[in-house]
Amino acid sequence: MHTLTEDQAAIVDAVRSFATSALAPNAIEWDQTKHFPVDVLRDAGELGLGGIYVREDVGGSGLSRSDAVLIFEELAKGDTTIAAYISIHNMVVWMIDTFGTDEQRERWVPGLASMDELSSYCLTEPGAGSDAAAITTSAVRDGDEFVLNGVKQFISGAGASAIYIVMARTGAAGPKGISAIVVPAGTPGLSFGPNERKMGWNAQPTRQVVLDRVRVPVGNLLGEEGDGFTIAMKGLNGGRLNVAACSLGGAQWALDQSIAYLRQRRAFGQPLAAQQSLVFAIADMETELQAARALLRVAAQSLDDGDADAVALCAMAKRFTTDVAFTVANSALQLHGGYGYLADYGIEKVVRDLRVHQILEGSNEIMRLIVGRSLLEDSP
Amino acid sequence: MKIMVLVKQVPDTWGERTLDLTTGWVDRAATDRVIDEIGERALEVALSRRDANKGTEVVVVTMGPAECTAALRKALSMGADSAIHVLDDALAGADLGRTARAIAAAVSGTGFDLIVAGNESTDGRGGVLPAMVAELLRLPHLGSLDSVELTDSTVGGLRSTEHGTATVHAALPAIVSITESLPEARFPSFKGILTAKKKPISQLSLADLGSTFAQTPGTVIRQATAKPPRTAGTITVDSGTAAAELAEFLIAARLVPSPPTR
After folding, report:
1. Assuming Cys at both sites, which of A22, A211, B59, B253 could form a disulfide with A148, CB separation 3.0 to 4.6 Å?
2. What ipTM, to 2 d.p.?
3. Which CATH architecture has domain A120-224?
């Protein structure tokens, strides 16, 4: 059993108390009505969830990646969708804190860390998903400004966010021609598509971000010109850990619900818990989640330590955890029978929410590519 | 300004609460232990004063066994600056009078301006402790406030009574108790949790409080019995007069006012 430090246990307790009181009682309603609870996100910011591994001088919590995966697992037990949005927001805030100048950090991070302002990560385009280095959104230097043109696809928080980090092409084709540029809400030429209708993740908006001759000062560039792809990928390492942790929490919640249901539901004259096939089912669910949790914690530790294999471990943890967690959630639905299919029980929502975790933050096929290539490159 | 906040660790309000029948005391091991929610709201009153007025000092005070440290740590992680824990095995099972004397002794001489408490705890529900502490300390007491107005030299607020609303105020130092109309407490922040460990908790034994507390409590529980199991209630079968029977039943049980006599 992986034991938590006293501090970690206290932090997880605080997150549990927030998730059970502020998220869980509303999760089904928010999903059904597609409500994005920005007021509750502000409460999350008060807790310190807006900049979990961001430095304290700009309002961050200064915690580690290992702490973050514990936090996101617990948060997702309350609401997987809101936990996942907070994960994306943290990725953006960390990018500004890590690659921004002091001036940029002081300008943008405090409002984001408190979650008074929200943020969006804009990499994917209608024609460039897994092949992210093929993006065509352009940023052309004009005096002291960049002029951005292009369309970003599947952008979480779009329309509600105050800050958009846009990966745009400032140079030649390929990854080295991409820069990361901060575009604030309200900049003329910045607009949004309609809220997408989707399978899950209904409590957060997903829209296109349309950039039509959007002008921002050159001071909004993160890092140097051409650093954008590297910055975007580094952000995703942590993003993968966090979204995996969200899957783990959602699936663990579904398993916990299933255990209670097996004890309480009777069929053929006895509780379902007396059916050996169902006992085996929950045993497998628990085993796979524990295996995922162990891998996830190793990956988080490797990112904390800056190990050379951290990128591959984050990819492994993301692929394995999101796959296993989806299967567990789907099994939980099966164990609940018809009730699992009803919105009121919350199980079908978790299944719908977790499905997309196998696709985003780098699809699980891309995760295999990262892991496989790292093996071939490292071998003599 | 120095504000003392009285908090109490109680069995989780949403859990099954049981009595230990051999002692007649609350069985603390039977459920999760939490800070009484009304005590958290009292702490919020103090913390929001401090948010707006730098230099305000907030001290949480409790009496209870060693496990109450967890409640104090939580209060510290929410933002209190320090804590006082009255801790002595000889105080186990202390009645309200003895508890009030211990708390009064613990806070006297600390130079506080205001004591804030909840109006009653969810376990004992005595509802008189703040008044008793006020009496012992010879301080003005404003009980069961639905709102609190605090200035540098006065405290006041609104109290709902059966007949209306009273606006009350007193000069500091004073003691107030609040109701659940006051805002919910904030969540502890991660930074607060990590710094709470370094904040001081001073433990006071009976000896530290002075010799007057060596006395035995004024009341002792002689015997406790479990609540009898619920029995089936009255069942009315409608044979045309059920409505009248139901009304009579409710009136007899004083669950609705009697009809005016003609």
Report:
1. A211
2. 0.85
3. Beta Barrel (2.40)
